[in-house]
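Below: protein 1.
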Amino acid sequence: MQTIVALTGVGAIAGAAGAAGNIGMDIDSSDAMRYQPASVIAGASSPASPGALLPVSLAAAKASMAVMQEESETEKERIAALPRSAFFEGWRRSAELGLNGSEGNTETFNFRAGIRTERITDLMETRARASYTYGTDDGSKTTNRANFNARNDWLFEDSRWGFFALGRAEFDDFQDWEWRLSGFAGPSYTFIREDDLTLRGRLGAGGSRTFGGDDNKFRWEGLAGLDLIWQITERQNFFVTTEVYPSFRDRREFRTYTDAGYEILVDPEMNLSLRLGATHRYDSRPGPDTDKNDLEYFALLSLAF
């Protein structure tokens, strides 16, 4: 009886196919037993052993790893090709400068300079500001103050809620301290967000620490803030920021900070604006020989770039 040996598969069966190819396909069953190696006969009549399948498994694993590596490289190239709109685009900057003085019976001189930058998107608003103020009266220094603050607002999509983080560094020659560092974070809620009007409240916690004074301990504080920005016309806007910092250590102690102003674009071609405003600071515990209230008003020319 003639038997056709159909040799297919992997592992040892593939080896048997090679051997059968050298001998011939249509052979007598007795001749097959005489010419085939024992391993081939066993492979034709029983399942391939794990050892026989190992080379095939290794080859499949290598092929799979090569495909995964190629896909990974493709994904890296896709990410690298995306536009870097992210954090370094869309910034608006402005530099501001103001001077005033008098001579005669009284000699006064006041100087204020600053720089502002902001980036506004649908889901994040970032603002930073640095300013320096110096003043003299009859040759005696009356003001020497520097201030830097930065705030980031993360706005949740399709929600009035958000989250903010605020940091501030202050220097003042006429306080009980020389430097004060503070930081706060917490939730925010936007009451109004229109094209020409934004009203947002903030509630957070953090603290401050002074350096160069009598009390240089860290003070845990809360923060309650309110921000209003009103775009009156294309060339005019009004802004108010007010914050209260109650002490967690003593409820009778608190600080306040309010900044308000009006800005009008006077030269659209140069991006030159006139900025009028005032800044008020209050500290219920200012230290010896220091007033609780501190009011500073200003008139500045601001150049956007």
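Below: protein 2.
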Amino acid sequence: MTFRLIQKEDASLFAKYKGFGWEYCFPYLFIISHFGQFTMCYQDDVIYVKFVLPTKVYFLRPYLNDLSKLNNAIDNIYKYCQDHNLTFEIIGLRENDLDYISDKYYTFSTENDSEYVYLSFDLIYLIGKKYQPKRNYINRFRYANNYTFIDYQEKYKKQVIELLNLWSKQANKINDVGEILSALEVYEELKTLNAFIKLLISDNTLIGIVIGCLQNDIAYTMYEKALVEYEGSFQMINQLTASTCYHNVKYIDRMEDMGDEGLRKAKKSYYPCLMINKRRLIKKDLSY
């Protein structure tokens, strides 16, 4: 198995494999590959994706349409890991995969991997008592700010970098920052893949950014950042994205919470209509 970076031209290859979840959001795969964390191998009508982090290597669930070939594909990954002295772990398996996996493998789930899916109608209109707090934040933001919601342009790159630096200090986090900067570098390619980058600006100050896409009639919000000192900025950018970019689709996938309790609380507060639950896989004789 020989792995390489994912290229824009691979979109048609990945499109052969249908599914629900970020693994089937090609613009997201393309961004992470450009960032250097995803590489792919196409072999015997199966796509293998390697996910390289500083401390560990994972593999995504193999992309295939014939589930009877799933266990063989998993065996191929296990052999590759043995040959290259890598820890063997596959992420992103679904419940309906389990009947096709040998009992020499062990699967387990973690809440951190679950994805939050919403009805676009709910996030556009925020109807009902349960969404009253969101509407209140949005109304306060509108009252306090002279704002615009525009497409990204190269002239805003410096402001985006400043925004991300400030956000990471406020949140005491650096996750996603490098990936967002990678998205800026491949913005022209992303536009051809039905993806977008939008900016929330108040009185000529950049206060929020969102990166999303439409893929297989599903909307994905890949990244969303805003400055907390602008009260209601997160609620505003969420609603603006849904109403201006996602009005023609039924579902909006807002990805995982990655175990961040604050992010988990925020995602649950928008009342997902569906959680995409996933499983991880290791060899039974390995301890996790």
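Residues 4-113+278-283 form a domain with the Aminopeptidase fold (CATH 3.40.630.30).
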